[in-house]
Amino acid sequence: MRDVAKLANVSIATVSFVINDTKPVAPATRARVEEAMRQLDYRRNALGRALASKRTRIIALLYPALQRRLTETAVKFFTSAAQTAKDLGYNLVLWPISNEAGQVEELISSGFIDGVLLMEVQLDDPRVEPLQRSTMPFALIGRTRHPEGLPYVDVDFESSMIEAVSYLDGLGHRRICFVDSDSAEHGLSGYGPLVRTRSTFVEEMERRELLTAHISCANSPISGQAAAEKLLATAPDTTAVILMNDNASFGFTNGLNKAGLCVPADMSVLLIGSSPAIAAATEPRLTVMTLPSTALGRMGVETLIDQLEERGEPMRQALISCSFEEGQSTGPARVLEPGASRGFSRNCESHSYALSL
After folding, report:
1. What is the CATH number assigned to the segment(s) 157-290?
2. Residue 276 pLDDT > 90, yes or no?
């Protein structure tokens, strides 16, 4: 540190202020100190910095890995959140613990972290209360049943589902099925995105006086194929499906193909809450409403760090809609002549659907 101070022509105390962020330093002076550190290959001592500032500059992202498998969209979120934290002078660590209040309390009392980001939020999430009782800054990626007074950013699943139904309705589809994940698959009672999307689907379909069907299945290709078979057996007049189950989408489209249906001539398929990469893994490429994973990661970290830096910003409560990308799996509803029985196109090409995980 003495060598850095000499090269930058400042006091040792000034170097300490720059390294530990304990006092403001003029931009020009800070630049000289950082350039001297670079020339001398001086590395910040994270432990020393934490002791000096009483801050670790580490934030924890709590992800219930035991209950929720990692997905491509989750990885995008982590990457964006970690980069934003780094840009703002913090380190982000992924903390894979269950959604239990006791484990959160242990983390809070450990002294390892400065703040917490919660993912996979339940409507009545047990992790929120211990955080509210503590002095630990936190933010939610998701919403509880009553999010008033809580800092959060979340996907606007309600408006995204309304847009999906509106799009299919505009194509003439009068009977639409919603295929989502089995609640047991999440291991999370009252999982916010699932509950909100299901509820909005029912409400919007009733408002438009459309016929509904609903199937839940495990998050796997085999379960998706079984869901397609169940749909054709129980609601054969369905002409469009909204899928909210990434891994089941591969098997679902395979199941339609095995039954002799053409997508989209016989059945339109729209994937919601996913990614273009998942949508492109089948043939034809699925129409998709993409999760705003990158924006969520960035905004979630910014929401937390605003508290840590005491910037005085208004508490952020933000909703972000999915972005719509039309693929080749949706088209006009097939119109049956009065009195005709349901039949399917048999002249479409045989497609193979590859699982890309």
Report:
1. 3.40.50.2300
2. yes
Using one digit for the tens of pLDDT, what is the confidence trace for 307-338? 998 877 778 999 999 999 999 999 999 876 55
Task: Supply the pTM of this predicted model.
Answer: 0.78
Domain 58-155+293-321 is classified in which CATH homologous superfamily? Response regulator (3.40.50.2300)
- Residue 268: φ, ψ to 5°: -85, 145
Q: What would you report as the CA-atom Rg of the chain, rounded to the nearest whole angstrom? A: 25
34-76 confidence digits (pLDDT tens): 888 888 877 665 545 554 445 689 999 998 876 666 777 788 8
Please name which of 222, 273, 269 lies closest in space to residue 248, comparing C-alpha atoms: 222
Cα separations in angstroms, 44 against 18, 54, 246: 10, 15, 43
Could you give the 3-state DSSP secondary structure of residue 5?
helix
Candidate CATH numbers 1.10.260.40, 3.40.50.300, 3.40.50.1820, 1.10.540.10; the one for domain 2-53: 1.10.260.40
